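S.,

Sequence below, as promised.
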Amino acid sequence: MKNKSNRNLILVGLLVIAALLIGLIYLFTSGRSRLDQAQKELDTVSSELENARSVADELSEALSEAYSQYDELDAENQKTLTAKTSLESEKESLSASKTSLESEKESLAASNSSLESEKESLAALSSSLESEKESLSAAKTSLESENAHLTSSRTSLESEKERLTAEKKELETEVTTLSETASVLQSEKDTLLAETLCLESEKTALETEKTELQTEIDALSQDRSSLESEITGLQSDKTSLESEITSLQSEKDFLTSENSSLSTGKASAESERESLLQSLSAQQASALEKESEFTLEKTQLENRITDLETVRTRVTETLEKTFNDDDISLSLEDNGVIVLNAGVLFDFNSSDLTTDGKNLLREFFASYVNILLSDEVYPYISEVIIQGHADADGSYLYNLYLAQKRAYQVAEFCVGDKNSLLSQEELDKVLPLITVNSRSYSDLLYTSEDAEEPTVDSEKSRRVEIEFRLKSNDELDHLLNP
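The prediction came back faster than expected:
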């Protein structure tokens, strides 16, 4: 039973050794293929240089693993040799046992049939031991051959390791060289790219210059044609000029004769020039005198206009002080225009003065006339205008008629024959100044002038305005049209 166990151990050891050898051969073959693949990749793609280096490192690691596995196989071989020694000792013990059994067989020769059977079993055991001995001898021979094979494999592996180490160094050198070459090639590529861009820009510039030169050549061709035509024309002009020179020469002779006759008329022309100069000097003196008179007259008129503007300002200020009562239904514009609310003076669509309207006119008109007829203002007043305005409801002509009647009613109440607001002296002064007119709805008022689409204020648009005019307008017309 013990021999059978030993035999199983030996078989297991042999299987392990065979597996290790297969693994070693596989590792060696795979390492070789990887090395070849790395060599090919180094030759074809510079971008995989780092991968080749890692493959070389992996091969080195695989070689180290192979050495470790070889050491393990060597240890297993030592174990096998130990097992062989133990088997030989057991064989010797078995031989001793056989000898003792033979002596016992001789002593028990007289034993019964049971001893014979034991003898036969011992013979069978002896034959099995012999067969085991032969198998052990064969295993020993196989182990010795394996040992020799392992020794040769170790030697080849060491040489392969040295070769791989050398190849690794060569690969590292080639990797460094290829890296440097790649950087040089990259710099050359960048330089070539820059030069290509420069050449393309120069090509574009040259094409542009070529186009411009072609345009200039075409223009020069046209200029040449025009110059040739001009030369032809100039040649014809030359011929005509030569004929003109001949005619001019004859005219020169004629003018020479005329010059002598003109010399005689020069003296008379000089005397006429002196007389004309004297006349011009007299006209200039007269013009200067008229200019000084005009300047003086202009200054007087400007002063007059300034005085009139001062009068307008004074009248406006006086009106503001007099009619600054909020209870009176009128307003005063900056230019001195009195605006009367038509809603107070008249009923809607009517030209008859209401009671409130009459009271309003009684309250302000006499005071208004007293201001205009004062000694400081009256000499400058040229006109008092009573002007009617309407809203945009209805036709233009109807509103023109209505506004005219309303303005007339105001004038009749204030300065008519039946009025009791002014004295006869005041009437005599103010009546020649009064004019009445209508604007219909040509001058509407709006709620807000700043709005994009202002809304018409119909109530404010229905109004009567009383405006005084100064003589400054007549003075200005005289100044501009003397």
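The two ends are 162 Å apart (CA to CA).

Coffee later?
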